[in-house]
Amino acid sequence: MTTDRTFASAAERAEAYRRRVLLESGKALASLDDPRAAQAAVLAELLATNGDTAFGREHGLPAVRDAAGYRRATPIRGHEEFRPWLERVHAGERGVLTSEEPTAFFASSGTTGGEKSIPVTAGFLRRCFLPFYFAGFAQLVRHHPDLPTRDDTVLNLWQDPHSPAAATLGGRPHIGPSQLDFAKAGEDLAVGLGNRAPWSRLPEELAGAGPWERCYLRLRMAAEHDVRGIIAVNPAIAAALPHQLAHWWPRMVREIRDGTVGGLAIRPPDPGRAAGLERAAARRGTLRPADLWPRLELLLTWNTYVSRLYLPGLREEYGAGLHIRPAPIGSSEGPLAVPLSGRASGGALMVSGCLYEFVPADERIEPWTDTLEPHELEEGQEYHVVVSHVGGLYRCAVRDIVKVVGFVGSTPVVEYSCRDGLVSVAGERVRESHVLRAVAAAGETTGVAVRQVMYRAGTDASRHDAAVAFATPPPRTRAFTTALDEELCREAPGYAAARRSGALAEPLVHAVPVEAFWREWRRRVEDGERPTRVKDRVFRDDPGAWTRVLSGTEAER
C-alpha cells in the first residue's frame, strides 16, 4: 500500500483520487478479455504467498500447479468450516491461513447465526480489496466529477470508520468492511468519499453513541450542508432514510435553530434554515431527503434483489434529479464485481482480484462438487459463488447466488440474485429469486406496485406465507394471490409439480404496510446492530419478526 501523504488542497486530493479510480478501473477492464489468464495469475499468487502455511501444507498446496490440482487438493467449505484454523489464528499462532499476520478481521453474521471472522492482511488489501474498492467508484467519478472536490457534498451512509468497534480475543479489530479505517492502514486516497465531511467524526462527547443515535447525529450535521450524493451500498439504508427523517425532523429542526447537536451547543444557531425546513415539512407533513438537499443528484447503492421493488418508489423522496447508480458487489468474504459504465445494474467479475468458481443454483454444494470457471458460465443462469483469495480463504462457499446478465469479453457480468436457501414443504425447492420474480410479475399482471416482501414455509405445512407491502392499499389482493401462484409455477418447476399433485396449496398472502418493514429495521438498529448489517432478507424464519410485521393485518385467501 502507498503511505499516507498530505495534499495541498481538497482539489489536489480529488484529482489524485480521480486518477487512482480510473487507473484501477482500467486495469480491471483490461483483464476482462482473458479471464482465464487473470484467474491463473490470481491462483499462482495465492499459492506462492500462502502455500507454505499450516493450511497450505495440510492440503498439499506447495505441489499444486494449476486450477484442476487446486480443486483436487482443497474441498469446498462454508465459512463455519474454517473455524478450527481461525481459532488457532486468534490464539496467536502464526502462519496458519496466511503468511502475513492479519491486521484485522472482517465480521458479519454467518448463515448459521455465528459471527464471521475473515482475516484481513496488508497483502489482501493491496492486491485484492483496494483495486476493487477504487474501480467500483469509476461511474461516480465519470458521471459526477464534482462530488469528490468537496468534503461536504457526499453523505456516506455506508462507511463509518470512527464507530465503536469490537476486537478479537487477541485484541485485533473485528469489524465490518464499512468500519475499516484506511487512513490508519496507510492508504490516504482510500478514505471514502464523505469520510472527511464535518459529520464523519462525531464530537468526542458523542463518539460512543449507539448505531441508532449515530444515524441521527450524522444526519443532523449533514442537514446544514449542500449534500449532492449519498453512498448507501446497502439499499435498506436508503429505504430507511425517508422514514428516519419523518421520525426525527422536529428534533432536527429544533437543534438547527438552537445550534445544538445531540443537545450540545457546538454549532452556530441557524433560525433561517430551521424556518425553511419547517415550511417544507408543513407542506408535505414530513421532511424528505429532497427537502434537505434539493441538489441531490446521486444515490450509489445495490439496485437488485428486493431493492428492485422499492427503489423506483424512492425517487419522489429523493428528488427528480436523482441518478441511482449501482454500487460495487462484494461481501465480507471478498470482492465480486465492479459496475461498468452503460449498465444500469450488476458488474463484471473482478477476475484480477479473487479466484472464482461457480455451481449451478439448482445443485447442492458439497465438498467435492464439480465447479465451473467464469468463462464457462451461461447468460441468464444463476449460480452459487465459491471464492479464494490471498487473504486466507480457500474455496469458500459464500452463500450468495448471482445471475449472469451478459459478458464483457469472455468475463461474465453478474447481478446479485439472492442468498442461498430454500423454502420447501413438499419438495418444491423455491429460491428467493423465484419469489422475487414471481412477486414482481404478479404485481404487473394485477396492476399493483409491490414495495417489500417476506416469505416462509407456512405454519400449517401445506402452503407458503407471503407478507407483501404494497405501495397503496391493493384493491385486488385476491387477484394478486392467484397471479403469484401462477407465476411461482412458472418460476419453480418443483412448485408447479407440488401444486399439480395437491401436496401444496396456493400461498397465503398477507397485505402489510410498508411501515411494518421500516419498524422492524428500526427495532434492530435501536437494539444495537449497525445499519450496514441490517439487510433485506426475503426468507425469514424468525417467528418474532413475522408476528411484528403481521401485527394488525389480515390474510387474503
Please supply descriptive tags for the structure shown above:
alpha/beta; 18 helices; 557 residues; 22 strands; 8-stranded mixed sheet
Major sheet details = 8 strands, mixed
| Rg measurement, Å | 24 Å
Low-confidence stretches: none
Helix content: 25-40%
Strand content: 15-25%
Question: CA-to-CA gap between the ends?
Answer: 60 Å
Which shape, going by the Cα principal axes? globular
Number of strands: 22
Structural class by SSE content = alpha/beta
Could you tell me the mean pLDDT? 93
| Helical stretch tally | 18
Describe this structure in words.
It contains 18 helices and 22 strands. Strands 1, 12, 13, 14, 15, 16, 17 and 18 form an 8-stranded mixed sheet that branches. Strands 3-2-6-5 form a 4-stranded mixed sheet. Strands 4-7-10-11 form a 4-stranded parallel sheet, covered by helices on one side. The termini are far apart. The protein is globular, with a radius of gyration of 24 Å. 37% of the residues lie in helices and 19% in strands. It has helices spanning 10-30, 35-50, 54-58, 67-73, 83-90, 122-135, 138-143, 182-185, 211-222, 235-258, 271-284, 289-292, 307-318, 432-446, 477-491, 493-501, 514-526, 543-550, and strands spanning 77-78, 104-106, 118-120, 154-156, 166-167, 173-175, 229-233, 260-261, 264-265, 298-301, 323-326, 329-331, 334-338, 347-349, 355-360, 382-389, 393-408, 411-419, 450-457, 464-470, 508-512, 555-556. The chain has 557 residues and is an alpha/beta fold. Helix 10 packs parallel to helix 13 (307-318), helix 14 crosses helix 15 and helix 15 (477-491) packs across helix 16.
